[in-house]
């Protein structure tokens, strides 16, 4: 009747940008990410046989409007699969505020998929849990697993994530929180606009398979420099693609560009560091675990009082067991 799950955000090294099918949340390309060990989301789902609608809260605040609608639609899907008409109460707690840009829908829907499927009595394999989480938010399919993860494009059956073996490759990420406000345009709408209007979108879709092959090969030989170069280049290409939309989608601000300069200077000074940027102005710096202090010092020197988060490779979603 009640179940709690915990999931971590993930950061893509080969990005997901654009859907092939909106309803089923099928991506236009494969993507590849690192699950983090910071900023977990903990979600409890409790079935409420007396209720006539789903209720959800985020860190104690009731969810309303589009947010609640998205969660309710997802719960309807889980209930339908379980052959149940019972409504649920969802309580979600995040370790860091949503504004930091890491309290992502990936961790949120991975935790919700795990807690809701358990509460409704569905025993899903990790693969089927990933397929389910995908329906809440595409990138949530990847947060079901820990470490490096590849999410496959495909049809409803074939589009799931799975972990990648990465012996000997240790990755860390320094997140520079450059702007903590809500973003101007949500990634869902921005993707839609890119697919519909950017003349570069076809080139993006055509280039990702080759980048993925190169990334898989770099991971297999534990080549951090190649992993970093490929990740930075892929992030630039994703932003180039959306800058080509009409009207353009630009998430960067002046600090974003300044942070890219800091990362480039790190490399010139012999600190291996590579940047990636998602649907917001914050810059995430990929490096070896032993380089995080040097990278953080450089960022602090460039941005007074900047919030920095340091992460290593984190675990997949975990069900903490029935609460009652
Ligand atoms: C830029 O997974 O949030 O972070 O499927 O519409 O919920 P929806 O989108 P979402 O998009 C993530 C976009 C990205 C790149 C990535 O994580 O691969």
UniProtKB/TrEMBL annotation:
Residues 7-157 form the Diphosphomevalonate decarboxylase-like N-terminal domain. The keyword S-adenosyl-L-methionine does not apply. GO terms for molecular function: ATP binding; diphosphomevalonate decarboxylase activity; kinase activity. GO terms for cellular component: cytosol. It holds the Pfam family MVD-like_N. Its EC number is 4.1.1.33. Keywords: ATP-binding, Kinase, Lipid biosynthesis, Lipid metabolism, Lyase, Nucleotide-binding, Transferase. Gene3D superfamilies: 3.30.230.10, GHMP kinase, C-terminal domain. Residues 174-305 form the Mvd1 C-terminal domain. InterPro entries: GHMP_kinase_C_sf, Mev_decarb, Mev_diP_decarb, MVD-like_N, Mvd1_C, Ribosomal_Su5_D2-typ_SF, Ribsml_uS5_D2-typ_fold_subgr. It comes from the Bacteria. One of its GO terms (biological process) is isopentenyl diphosphate biosynthetic process, mevalonate pathway. It is an enzyme of class 4 (lyase). NCBIfam families: mevDPdecarb. Belongs to the diphosphomevalonate decarboxylase family. This is diphosphomevalonate decarboxylase.
């Amino acid at each position: 009747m009640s179940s709690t799950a915990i999931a971590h955000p993930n950061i893509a090294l080969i990005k997901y940008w654009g859907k092939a099918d909106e309803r089923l949340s099928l991506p236009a390309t494969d993507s590849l990410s690192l699950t983090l060990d910071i900023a977990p989301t903990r979600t409890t789902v409790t079935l409420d046989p007396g209720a006539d609608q789903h209720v959800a809260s985020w860190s104690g605040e009731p969810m309303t409007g589009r947010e609640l609608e998205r969660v309710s639609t997802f719960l309807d899907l889980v209930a339908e699969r379980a052959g149940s008409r019972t409504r649920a109460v969802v309580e979600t707690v995040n370790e860091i505020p949503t504004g930091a840009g890491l309290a992502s829908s990936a961790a949120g829907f991975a935790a919700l998929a795990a807690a809701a499927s358990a509460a409704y009595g569905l025993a899903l394999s990790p693969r089927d849990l990933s397929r389910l989480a995908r329906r809440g938010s595409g990138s949530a399919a990847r947060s079901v697993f820990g470490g490096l993860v590849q999410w496959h494009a495909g049809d409803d059956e074939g589009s799931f994530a799975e972990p990648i073996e990465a012996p000997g490759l240790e990755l860390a990420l320094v997140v520079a929180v450059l702007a903590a406000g809500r973003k101007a345009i949500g990634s869902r709408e921005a993707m839609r606009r890119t697919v519909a209007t950017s003349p570069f979108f076809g080139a993006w879709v055509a280039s990702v398979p080759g980048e993925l092959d190169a990334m898989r090969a770099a991971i297999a030989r534990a080549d951090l420099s190649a992993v970093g170069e490929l990740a930075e280049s892929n992030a630039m290409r994703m932003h180039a693609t959306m800058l080509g939309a009409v009207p353009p989608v630009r998430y960067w601000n002046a600090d974003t560009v300044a942070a890219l300069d800091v990362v480039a200077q790190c490399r010139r000074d012999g600190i291996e560091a590579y940047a990636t940027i998602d649907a917001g102005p914050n810059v995430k710096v990929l490096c070896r675990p032993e380089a995080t202090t040097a990278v953080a010092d450089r960022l602090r020197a460039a941005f007074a009082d900047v919030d920095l988060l340091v992460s290593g490779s984190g675990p997949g979603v975990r069900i903490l067991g029935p609460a009652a």
